[in-house]
Design goal:
The complex is a heterodimer of chains A (393) and B (142). Chain A has 393 residues and is an alpha/beta fold. Chain A has 15 helices and twelve strands. In chain A, the strands form three sheets. Chain A has a seven-stranded mixed sheet, sandwiched between helices. A three-stranded antiparallel sheet of chain A has the order 9-10-12. In chain A, helix 9 packs parallel to helix 14. Chain A is globular, with a radius of gyration of 22 Å. Helix content of chain B is 42%, strand content 19%. Classes of the chains: A alpha/beta (393), B alpha+beta (142). At the A-B interface, helix 10 and helix 15 of A face helix 1, strand 2, strand 3 and helix 2 of B.
């Protein structure tokens, strides 16, 4: 096949959609401060409120329950730290989460541990899915908060959010969900799923970077994270990023439309990719094969290292990512791959391909044409591969 | 791109990849757990390294540092090869990102390990000449 450009790293970030761009361009002229009382400010305010309605509709809540933030990380920090501050006063100092949350959640929990909270991180097992029974067993009288991601950002496995929500509601425990990766791929309904706090990021769903929101169920009291002016009804200070908010509103509207059809089409391509890649010897799929995001394929190829694989794919015009130590910027490979029980040496050879509605069958076939010779080439110069093969004999 | 042109050149077209079946010395450093292993093969004639080949499991800079290190010692005496420092490897590549410096250390060590093996095969205790080669377990890996 002729060389092409294939962007297959949509879990990292996405391209801005034309509709979002259009909406944002229109909003760039709304320069009035939304807090000002004259008409110029009102126009900006109205644009924000329209976006708030779009966001609310997309997750089944009231507009007054949506609070714009600088992104998913701030929403996670706010939800957990804000809830913890209130819970501490009631003696609820135990939090349950999972071993493979995003660092925005894990590092926030670590910060709370230093302040005296105790945290239980549930195992996620080989399939990358939390077990509801284990969650139930972890609940203590002082448990005040459960934080479980809707779907994992690296391996795409979908968590039993509705079941966990029902348990939390019954036991009077707050339930926070990081839904950054799920929006647009899975139906999110905070009422039906009994979610109290939900984090969303714009740039994962074709809006821009630096915008997101936190859904806070009416009646759920959490402390502020950012203090200052009275924006966001006094809950989140700072003059609003009007064009980004307008873009997020549009992106949420589009993300929540036609999910089932879109997911089905993407999943078919994903499965074609997985089946093709697994033809490579000593390869494996990470995380449950069925219960995963429609666009996520996470694979390991033994005997090679992920960063060199990415560099070679990049030379062929393919953008993907890896959970190897070299790409994680730390000594260890991805905590997600370790949490599903992969040994370090296998986790170093991981490849995450995340596709979306723009990915074509030709793109998948192009990846499947380029990938095997790259793996073979790296293996041919790998002493680890040499050892693996000699141990086979 | 965090890598220099030189790194990308050596990564894309690595020099001296492969094995020497009748090598006079073979050195292997790093381990799979850390994510990089370098294996160096040398042929020695009259104290001169006449041929060198490598195999590397690792990231782009691990492959590039091994490749350039082979070029820097091929045709040189053992004494010169032992003087090759990781800084010289980094400089020859036009620099490496800070968190990749350990790759150049591995390249230096893999050469020393191959020379040690050569001395051992010839009944010479390598330690007074080559020094001790740290292993990953000593915490020198990264």
């Amino acid at each position: 096949m002729e060389k092409r450009f294939v962007y297959a790293d949509n879990a990292a970030t996405t391209k801005i959609s034309p509709a979002v761009k259009q909406a944002m361009i229109g909003a760039l002229d709304l320069y009035g401060n939304p807090s000002s009382l004259y008409a110029l400010g009102d126009q900006a305010k109205a644009a924000i409120e329209k976006a708030r309605e779009q966001c609310a509709k997309a997750i089944g809540c009231a507009p007054a329950e949506v609070f714009f933030t600088s992104g998913g990380t701030e929403a996670d920090n706010w939800a957990i730290k804000g809830a913890a501050a209130r819970l501490r006063k009631k003696g609820k100092t135990h939090i349950i989460s999972t071993a493979f949350e995003h660092h925005a959640v894990l590092h926030t929990l670590q910060a709370l541990e230093k302040q005296g909270f105790s945290v239980t991180l549930l195992p996620v097992h080989e399939n990358g899915i939390v077990r509801v029974e284990e969650l139930k067993d972890a609940i203590r009288p002082e448990t005040g908060l459960v934080s479980v991601m809707f779907a994992n950002n690296e391996i795409g496995t979908i968590q039993p959010v509705a079941e966990i929500g029902a348990i939390c509601r019954e036991r009077g425990i707050l339930f926070h969900v990081d839904a950054v990766q799920a929006i647009g791929s899975l139906p999110v309904d905070v009422q039906a799923q009994n979610i109290d706090l939900l984090s969303v990021s714009g740039h994962k769903i074709h809006a821009v970077k630096g915008i997101g929101f936190l859904y806070i169920r009416r009646g759920v009291a959490i402390d502020n994270l950012i203090d200052g002016g009275a924006q966001e009804r006094g809950r989140r200070a700072g003059t609003e990023n009007v064009p980004a908010i307008v873009g997020l509103g549009k992106a949420m509207e589009l993300a929540a439309t036609g999910i089932a059809d879109r997911a089905e089409k993407i999943a078919a391509l994903r499965d074609r990719l997985i089946a093709g890649a697994l033809q490579i010897e000593r390869s494996r799929l990470n995380g449950d094969a069925k219960n995963r995001l429609c666009g996520n394929a996470n694979l390991c190829f033994e005997g090679i290292e992920g960063e060199s694989l990415l560099l070679m794919l990049d030379m062929q015009g393919i953008c993907a990512s890896s959970g190897s130590a070299c790409t994680s910027g730390s000594l260890d490979p991805s905590h997600v791959l370790l949490a599903i029980g992969l040994p370090h040496e296998i986790a170093h050879g991981s490849l995450r391909v995340t596709i979306n509605e723009e990915t074509t069958k030709e793109d998948i076939d192009y990846i499947l044409e380029k990938l095997p010779p790259i793996v073979e080439r790296l293996r041919s110069m790998s002493p680890l591969w040499e050892r693996i093969k000699s141990e086979e004999k | 791109m965090m890598y220099t042109q030189q790194v990308m050149d050596h990564f894309t077209n690595p020099r001296n990849v492969g094995e020497i079946p009748d090598a006079d010395g073979i050195g292997e450093v790093g381990n799979a757990k850390c994510g990089d292993i370098m294996k160096m093969y040398i042929k020695v004639d009259n104290d001169v390294i006449t041929d060198v080949k490598f195999k590397t499991y690792g990231c782009g800079s691990a492959i590039a540092t091994s490749s350039i290190a082979t070029e820097m010692i091929k045709g040189h005496t053992i004494k010169e090869a032992l003087e090759l420092s990781n800084q010289a490897v980094v400089e020859a590549l036009g620099g490496l990102p800070a968190h990749k410096i350990h790759c150049s250390v591995l390249a230096e060590q893999s050469i020393k390990a191959a020379i040690s093996d050569y001395y051992q095969k010839n009944g010479i205790d390598p330690e007074p000449i080559v020094g001790k080669i740290p292993t990953c377990e000593d915490g020198h890996c990264h």
